[in-house]
Amino acid sequence: MTRLNWGMIGGGDGSQIGPAHRMGAQADGNFSFVAGALDADADRGKSYAQSLGIAPDRAYGNWRDMLEGEREHPDRVDLVTVATPNSTHFEITRAFLEAGFNVLCEKPMTMTVEEGEEIVRLAREAGRICAVNYCYSAYPMVRQMKAMVAAGELGAIRCVVANFSHGHHAAGDDADNPRVRWRYDPAQAGVSGQMADCGIHALHMASFILGDELRSLSADFASTVPGRVLEDDAMVNFRTEKGTVGRLWTSTIALGRQHGLDIQVFGETGGLRWASEQPNQIHYHRLGGRVEIIEKGEAGLHGDAARLSRVPIAHPEGFPLAVANIYVDLAARIRGEVAGALPGAEDGLRSMAAVYAAVDSARRDGAWVDARPPMFR
Ligand code: NAD
């Protein structure tokens, strides 16, 4: 197997998501970490990159230097991960796609729907991969749920309920904490706080499991901590293209909830429940039967769930491995091999359209609005 060359922008020393990408990309030997512009501070970024084994001439001080350096490099990177703060994603992703690189962008892919449409068009025209790191969709048991829905094991789907609600920004006196403040500041976060930060993960997961896309929504946004401009709590009712009823609750003030990502799917003949804090089990209730627990690693799982189970039954399987699963399929795509599901630029665009629709709806007392990007109507 030929190793692919991989580079990262952002994800510097002390960043939250950087380590997960480094572990994820390199876990299976698919990618060699050969280039990076890892930090907003050029010197910090260069020295940290070299401490991770990147050669000095490919430890770049900023992403523009990396673009120039890699464009002409005889052994240029096959994939660039963009793990910088949200407002920079569009500019960096666009530049690397235009230069013919494959990109894995962190969520939210862009700050506006128009930017999202430009990325989708660009990736299509360039014939390059633009993936978005909706990594929770790569948990084996989420793949099992998707396969069970597709196989008709729940009958026709009536309703999906998705939550991404935690209590980590509940403290009012934490409002000036720099890691918290930007998330509720329109100048830095854009039109939405928690919906754009975490709600889109849960919404993507609902679409992913159902094999169905968001059509319309009605949102109620609240900023419950005094002084916050953007929402820290949102309830979103939605309908899918196939007419399934959807409910999404996303919050940062839900004390008592920790990570708080969970999803339930209710069909005519069965229901499923999964939570990221117990990622190895699905609760399955067949109509007229008892609740069964389906365990990761057990015999008889659907193909993608079995393929992506990395550790024996009843052993914990971590979040970085969900990220690693994204890289497994990226590597296969780049090599032109058969690959599994990969969240793409279309998903990034749909999320941004959902955020804008939710903002619009919330401003108009929960009016039902079309939540599809214009290019997909
Ligand atoms: P962070 O603030 O902890 O780290 C950001 C890093 O990017 C820092 O090292 C910073 O120096 C660097 N950086 C900033 N501007 C840069 C630039 N112009 N060029 C190069 N490097 C730059 O942020 P984080 O929590 O790691 O989040 C980064 C991104 O990852 C965000 O978009 C966030 O939404 C996303 N994220 C996704 C998940 C997920 O589950 N998929 C989880 C956490 C964060």
Automatic annotation (TrEMBL):
<feature type="domain" description="Gfo/Idh/MocA-like oxidoreductase N-terminal">
    <location>
        <begin position="4"/>
        <end position="134"/>
    </location>
</feature>
<dbReference type="GO" id="GO:0000166">
    <property type="term" value="F:nucleotide binding"/>
</dbReference>
<dbReference type="InterPro" id="IPR055170">
    <property type="entry name" value="GFO_IDH_MocA-like_dom"/>
</dbReference>
<dbReference type="InterPro" id="IPR036291">
    <property type="entry name" value="NAD(P)-bd_dom_sf"/>
</dbReference>
<dbReference type="InterPro" id="IPR051317">
    <property type="entry name" value="Gfo/Idh/MocA_oxidoreduct"/>
</dbReference>
<feature type="domain" description="GFO/IDH/MocA-like oxidoreductase">
    <location>
        <begin position="142"/>
        <end position="272"/>
    </location>
</feature>
<protein>
    <submittedName>
        <fullName>Predicted dehydrogenase</fullName>
    </submittedName>
</protein>
<dbReference type="Pfam" id="PF22725">
    <property type="entry name" value="GFO_IDH_MocA_C3"/>
</dbReference>
<dbReference type="InterPro" id="IPR000683">
    <property type="entry name" value="Gfo/Idh/MocA-like_OxRdtase_N"/>
</dbReference>
<dbReference type="Pfam" id="PF01408">
    <property type="entry name" value="GFO_IDH_MocA"/>
</dbReference>
